[in-house]
Amino acid sequence: MRWINTRPSKGAQLALVLLPFLLLVIAYAFGSAARLAENGNDKLLPTLSVLADAINRMAFVADPRTGAYLLWSDTSASLVRLLSGLGISTVIALVVGMLIGMLPYLRALLAPFVAVISMVPPLALLPVLFIVMGLGETSKITLIAIGVAPTMIRDLALKAIELPREQIVKAETLGASSWQIALRVVLPQVLPRLITCLRLQLGPAWLFLIAAEAISSDSGLGYRIFLVRRYLSMDIIFPYVVWITLLAVAMNYILDRISAAVFPWSVLEKPA
Amino acid sequence: MSELRIEKVWKEYGDQIVLEDISLTVESRAFVALVGPSGCGKTTFLRMLLGQEQPTRGTILLDGEPLPPEPGPDRGVVFQRYSVFPHLTVLGNVLLGKEFTAARYRAKLFGAAKREAIEEARHLIAQVGLAGSEGKYPSQLSGGMQQRLALAQALIMKPKVLLLDEPFGALDPGIRAEIHTLMKRLWNETRMTVVMVTHDMREAFTLASRVIAFERRRDRPEEKIRYGASITSDISIWPPRLAGTPSVFSPDRDGPVAFPGQRQDDLASSGDKA
């Protein structure tokens, strides 16, 4: 049988999925053991038990100075920024994207402008944002929005333009106005794409968040990582990185589920 | 009444002349089939009737009034593809026209108005033979069923003119025959003029009351750009077919046909077809 036609069974599939993760943990354990055997005080790759101890300290023991449970207070601070940034970008992208996609006048006005803006490296604007908006939440949320919104706008506009012309003409023959076409024909068909787009932008959004927190903040996951970096506290940095990854994976999964539940037809359309 | 008058219509794209000097009167309730080789401007002509494109010169009148320069509810359309909305169920697709007309801002109906519209939509869905599939999405329907749905969706607006752009071209022969029967019945029962573009001569002569052929009279390579297509033949089917009246000569062939019952493209269990 050709290789392209061999498929794993259910069990084998699960084993294959877990294998790389398992290998990573094993490689870490070996590396850590090797380094510690050479130098008992090595801080670069702490043992798993030290990691567990650090997790316990950050998540379940109140900080003696502030009385806060640091992992959770950091998480909520970061998530508020991330979700506000993504929320604002989503609303902007939906409105502007549909306008560009549907109305030729606005397309002429805005499409090239958005294309140029989306090429501005957002991190290069960070100092400007800090100077103009101060070091508070506003500048961080703005950074995420500036980084994420232009790409989303372009993607949604593209999707709206991609809708077969026949559908728009058909809606016109059913007596629809521009507003009605936007509401009943274009909007429902770009929403699934909006969610896909949001999923793809999760990565960049986290990047901008951590960058902003690293430079100026007093809480947040990125802030903590860059704070403890000074003491080479790998035992805290590693769990934080894993935790951020898990949060991103969970958000991705939830968005995917929402899309399938709210837009059943969008799943049907994909070839089986 | 729904008489179409096309007066000295030309269509040019830049230097390329596509159609030249088309004059034509389509009487009310006629069924006109437009035939001709690929690229001769049949679809362009249909798009001008639809309002999607404007003639370069000449005028098109519907009941004596010039056509507005954009598509509207007086002219229904069924395309070969993409005629139905993939995000709406069968019922939702047929209801859509009603909702657009009745609710200007929300484009959705509620309460008694909604029940009434659903009643009408269900009746129409049954008429095109889709009863029982109201809750399905278009991607769960076969090609033939999608075109039936597109017909029902257009018919709920009670258009004066129904424009068909190779609507059955992608269907296989058995299903095409069934949908021809349906089309004939709809033409006989509703008060509308039908203009259909088709590649299929057989289809043109089985359905239409009049067959019009478009062709380039000068088609040498060096002539192609400066000479467009025009009407080369205009055949009224004999014995004449009149909407709503069975033919004296061959009632089977032309008359309002009876509902044929089970059709090939009705899926026993759908959902696996997507």
Description:
The complex is a heterodimer of chains A (272) and B (274). Chain A is an all-alpha fold. Chain A has a domain at 69-255: MetI-like fold. Chain A contains eleven helices and no strands. The longest helix of chain A has 38 residues, at 178-215. The model of chain A has no long low-confidence stretch (mean pLDDT 91). The model of chain B is unreliable at 258-262 and 266-274 (pLDDT under 50). Chain B is built from seven helices and ten strands. In chain B, helix 5 links the parallel strand 7 (161-165) and strand 8 (193-197). The radius of gyration of chain B is 19 Å and the shape is globular. Chain B has a domain at 4-84 and 160-254: P-loop containing nucleotide triphosphate hydrolases (Rossmann fold, 3-Layer(aba) Sandwich). Chain B starts with a strand and ends in a 20-residue tail after the last helix. Chain B is α/β, with parallel strands linked by helices and 274 residues long. Chain B has helices spanning 42-50, 90-102, 111-127, 143-155, 173-189, 201-207, 251-254; strands spanning 4-13, 16-26, 31-35, 57-62, 65-66, 75-78, 161-165, 193-197, 210-216, 229-236. Classes of the chains: A mainly alpha (272), B alpha/beta (274). The A-B interface holds A 164, 166-167, 169-177, 179-180, 183-185, 188-189, 263-266, 268-269, 272 and B 50, 52, 70-73, 75-77, 79, 81-88, 96-97, 99-101, 104-108, 137, 139-140, 150, 153-154, 157, 159, 274.
